[in-house]
Design brief:
By secondary structure, the protein is an all-beta fold. The protein has strands at residues 2-7, 10-12, 18-26, 33-39, 46-52, 57-59, 68-73, 78-83, 92-100, 103-106, 110-114. A hairpin with a 2-residue loop joins strand 9 and strand 10.
């Protein structure tokens, strides 16, 4: 079993920054990918960014390129999402995911609200 715990969400003004963290624990070994998704009210869940064990990472959502950065601390089994220049349209519940051995695990989600 794998457990994911997210933190770092909150309320921020437009133009502000937040850093989300996701700590993984449990049966984690070998190659796996960790990522961030988000789901805004009334919309489908969207893949935001992915970080692979190989060290390769991708920003999957065009709307956040140049503003969001994903990073990973392998020793701590933690993935981060640095979000800068936040916009109202970034408001969503952000979920951490871990893909390993054909299975996907999810965190409980953390709310990010961008509002003046």
């Amino acid at each position: 079993q794998v457990q994911l715990v997210e933190s770092g969400g909150g309320l921020v003004h437009p133009g502000g920054s937040l850093r989300l963290s996701c700590v993984a624990s449990g049966s984690i070994f070998g190659n796996y990918a960790m990522g961030w998704h988000r789901q805004a009210p009334g919309k489908q869940r969207e893949l935001v960014a992915t970080y692979y064990t190989s060290g390769i990472y991708t920003i999957n959502a065009d709307s956040v390129k140049g503003r969001f950065t994903i990073s990973r601390d392998f020793a701590k089994s933690t993935v981060y999402l640095q979000m800068n220049n936040l916009k109202a349209e970034d408001t969503a519940v952000y979920y951490c995911s871990l893909n390993i051995r054909t299975q996907t695990y999810w965190g409980q989600g953390t709310q990010v609200t961008v509002s003046s």
